[in-house]
Amino acid sequence: MSALRFSDTISAALADGTLIVTIDNAPVNALSADVRTGLMGAFEHAEKDGNIAGIVLTGAGSSFVGGADIKEFGKPPVEPHLPDVIARIEAFAKPVVAAINGVALGGGLEVALACHRRLAAPAAKLGLPEVKLGIVPGAGGTQRLPRLAGIAAAIDMIANGRIVSAAEALKLGVVDSVSPDTLLADAIADAKSTNAAALRRTGHLSIPAEAVEAIDKAASDALRKSRAQHAPAEAVRLVRLAASVSLSEGLAEERRTFIELRDSEEAAALRHVFFAERAAGKVEGLEAVAPRKIEIIGIVGTGLMGSGIALSALNGGYRVIGVEQNAEAAQKGRDRIAGLLDKAVQSGRLDAAGREDRSGRLTVTADMEQLEQADIVIEAVFDDLTVKTELFQRLDAIVRADAILATNTSYLDPDVIAAATRLPERVVGLHFFSPANIMRLLEVVNCRKTAPDVLATALVLAKRFGKLPIVSGVTEGFIGNRIFSAYRREAEYMVEDGASPQEIDAALEAYGFPMGPFAVFDMAGLEIAWARRKRQAATRDPAERYVIIPDRLCEAGRFGQKTGRGWYAYPDGKRTVDPEVTAMIETARAEKGIVPKSFTKEEIVSRLLKAMVDEGDALLSEGIAARASDIDLVMINGYGFPASKGGPMFAAGRR
Ligand code: 3HC
Prior knowledge:
Elements: E1 3-5, E2 10-15, E3 18-23, H1 33-48, E4 54-59, E5 63-65, H2 82-91, E6 96-100, E7 103-105, H3 107-114, E8 117-120, E9 125-127, H4 141-149, H5 151-160, E10 164-165, H6 166-172, E11 177-178, H7 183-193, H8 212-225, H9 231-241, H10 247-262, H11 265-279, E12 296-300, H12 304-315, E13 319-323, H13 327-346, H14 352-360, E14 362-365, E15 376-379, H15 385-398, E16 404-407, H16 414-419, E17 427-432, E18 441-445, H17 452-464, E19 468-472, H18 478-497, H19 501-511, H20 517-524, H21 527-536, H22 549-555, H23 579-592, H24 601-621, H25 628-639, H26 648-654
Parallel strand pairs: 3-4, 4-6, 5-7, 6-8, 7-9, 8-11, 12-13, 12-15, 13-14, 15-16, 16-17, 18-19
Antiparallel strand pairs: 1-2, 2-3, 9-10, 17-18
Helix pairs in contact: 1-2, 2-3, 4-5, 4-9, 5-8, 5-9, 9-10, 11-25, 12-13, 13-14, 18-24, 18-25, 19-24, 24-26
The structure holds 3-hydroxybutanoyl-coenzyme A.
Residues 27-28, 30, 66-71, 82, 103, 105-107, 110, 129-130, 133, 137-139, 141, 278 line the site of 3-hydroxybutanoyl-coenzyme A (3HC).
């Protein structure tokens, strides 16, 4: 083999008449200008060289191609453009085979779709996740994928940004075969055996016939999930268009839509979210710290929260020891976790073997001494300081000296819990959100004495649990609940000032929240915040503005949805404005002599956004949050802030 180089990132080697072209642009082989130039050079060379009968295109490392280079978005475009590179590949007169060795996403899959044959490694993942960035595929994905997989499957993949395995891609017709061990050799053999006179060009294929109902269902399913975002609807439109116009017309319309969306606020916000997620969980100075080895995880408490944490740990491949107070509670815990596993199987997220494997790694016991085997213990018991400190003292005496103790508190001070142990440096906070097996957000609380390797271990664990870890310092409510409290306070002020709860909810829902704050309060229940306010009453600054309405709701037994009444009434479960609440609000205003004002939707959103941002700025200046983008991620992933607005800090900056 002789090595050739076409750019910094594109090299090639001739093997037995086939040119193996390798894209090597770490970390994910994104299609930067250098890659595109190199690819054009390689095809130019292969066209002219009579010794080359075909091309195999592959990626270096563990990716095929992770997509267009997102870092180039927002900058002036540089030639050659990706659609031109792709057109060159598809039109090439000699066979071009994609050897998909790893992820083929976005532009990466679009490159593969333009090749004449596609072979994939079993671990490859394929998808067009552009909608997650607020855009649609811009290099033929919406027009070529349906020609291979059909309209319904293409809508499902593109409008949901759903990534599929190699096995599913094979079933859908997106790849021609899966090569267990010898991908490159198989791809070379494939290129050699392909008849250059009858190349299968995806863009020339007609769309397979399929039932209209299946297409309509795929479209309505995708649109239902996409809420306030524009890209999924555009993706559906473009895929449908593929059935009625020529390839070139479809490509032109796709490109026009791609550029329009790429330059939109929504796409800028979602790009911000993408890079925010990559930055999250990175702590300065921690890169050099080796995490502790974790194999066995103890979980104290297997109620709603503990069982969700247990499932996340089992999904992460760990052995789990759940601990309960007695044998009966242990049985209940076992049943609860088994129920979650069953649900995962029923929904198709888990197969029978996966269930078996997870069950085999789980023990639930009433014998706390068994935690001496654990490498980390996570407590998920009632959020009460005495309960938690006593538990930590017991655990401190049971677990090994190098084991980590994690508290899943929402509001208590983990430094106080840590101080009750002999080794406070091994204590860390892990604030899960409910349901813990579903919610991605995990606040990792770096306590005053947490050792760096304990923090590093918690971050590794969080990733293995499939979570998005955000590091928070110690403060009441950590990052999320502190901002949420500010949001709650401001929403209540606004009610006093003249806005109705339903006006505020409607404004926030129009902005993109799945639910406005008052509907959320009712869903979560009003009594916990009431109890906290009562606890704080003695120390509250009497000069501070205080809204009495939520206390009065609770005094009237209106604890929210579960009692059928809260900020709203729920006859037959339906959220309805309750004149009794309207009267309570009017009374409270009158007592303070407030003349109610009216608010526009925009004013409501601005005021709530400002309250969140002021609290966010305070968290940054106190060093509780490391970066504004962490705050955005917490609010998006834990509190329903619309991702398409980029989070409160980002959104405020754009205004
Ligand atoms: N462009 C530029 N940088 C990218 C990138 C891309 N498409 N994809 C990933 N990166 C960078 C990340 O920012 C990160 O950088 P950092 O180390 O400086 O933080 C690094 O690559 C590694 O990324 P991850 O931490 O996410 O690594 P993982 O191994 O966990 O995941 C991945 C790899 C699955 C490829 C994941 O990064 C991913 O999903 N990337 C985005 C895929 C995507 O959306 N592609 C579509 C792009 S738009 C497009 O192609 C338009 C086209 O239709 C014209």
